[in-house]
Amino acid sequence: MDKQTLNVAFATQKGGSGKTAITVLVASYLHYNCGCPLAVIDCDFPQHSLYEMRERDSRAVLENEYLKRMAYEQMREPGRAAYPVQKCRVERAPDMAAELAGNGNYDLLFFDLPGTVNSSGILRTIAQMDYIFAPVSADQTVLESTLAFLDVLQRMMLGKETSRLKGLYLFWNLVDKREKSELYGRYEKVIAGMGLPMLTTQIPDTKRFRKELDAENRTVFRSTLFAPDKRMVAGSGIPELAHEIISILKLSGYEETANR
Q: CB-based contacts of 95: which residues, under 8 Å, 6+ apart?
C-alpha cells in the first residue's frame, strides 16, 4: 500500500504566536537538513506571509551573487532542491493538498492556517490535518485561548470518522529563561488534566527568529530556500522540535541524515 502523505499544521488562535516562523524553520530543517520531501500550503489569507517570504527569498537570490552561488551548490545535492510553497484560500486547501499528495512526491504537507476559527472553511481544513502542534507561551490569555481551541478539536475531531486528526500536541514557545520554572509546572498540570500531551522541546524567546536572509553577513536562519545556518540553529530548539515531530509522525530514515 502506498504511504500516505501526512498533513501537519502549527496552529493557535492568537496572533503573534510565531506559528509562521516555526512552520518555515521546521519545514526547512526537515527538508534541507534531514532530506524529508515536503511541501507547504499557505492558506493564511489575506497576508499569505509564508508565500511572501518565498517571494522575498527568491528575489534576494536573483539579486545577490553570493546567495545565487549558495543556492546553486545546495541544489546540486540530491533532495535539496527548494520545496514548493503554494498559496490558496483556506477552503481550497484540502483540494490543493489532495493534488500535491496525489503525485506521491511528498511525505509531509505543512499548512500555515489562519489564526481564527471564524475564517470560512477552516474547520473543514482542520479536519483534514493528521497532526496539529500548538505553540503556547506562559501567558494566561494566550494559554486559555489555545486550550479552548484545542478542547473543541479534541471533542469534535480527534479520532472521529469525519476527521483525519490523530494527534494534538502543545509545546512551549517564546520561553524566557528568566521566568520561574514553577510557572510552567502549574500550567502543565492544567494541560495534563485535559489529556493533552506537551512536547519536551522548548523554543526560546530570541531575536534570531525574526532574522531572514542576510547576504552581507552570509548567515541564514529563517528562509524557505536554505537550510538554517548551523551557528544560528544551535540553541534555537528547532532541531530538537524537528526530531520530536519525526518521532511522533513515525517517519523513518530521516534521523540519520539530520546533521548533513
A: none
In the predicted structure, residue 260 carries a pLDDT above the cut 70: no
Q: Which of 48, 54, 6, 37 is nearest to 222 (CA)?
A: 54
Give the number of domains in the chain: 1
What per-residue string of b and e applies to 59-95 under the rule 16 or more CB within 10 Å gives b?
A: ebbeeeeebeebbeeeeeeeebebbebbbbbbebbbe
* Model pLDDT, residue 181: 73
Tell me how crowded residue 251 is: count the other CB atoms within 10 A of its CB: 17
CB atoms within 10 A of CB 204: 15
pLDDT value of position 138: 86
Residue 1 lies in a domain: no
Give the mean pLDDT of 66-86.
Answer: 92
CATH of the domain at 217: 3.40.50.300
Pairing of strands 6-10, 131-136: parallel
CA 124 – CA 95 distance, rounded (Å): 11
| Chain length of the chain | 260
One-letter amino acid for residue 41 of the chain? I
CB atoms within 10 A of CB 245: 23
Q: Which domain holds residue 10?
A: 6-249
Q: Mean per-residue pLDDT for 40-48?
A: 94
Residue type, 250: K
- Residues 38, 43, 44, CA angle at the centre, nearest 5°? 125
What strand order describes the sheet that includes 38-42? 85-87, 38-42, 108-112, 6-10, 131-136, 167-175, 198-204
Is the whole-model pTM more than 0.85?
yes
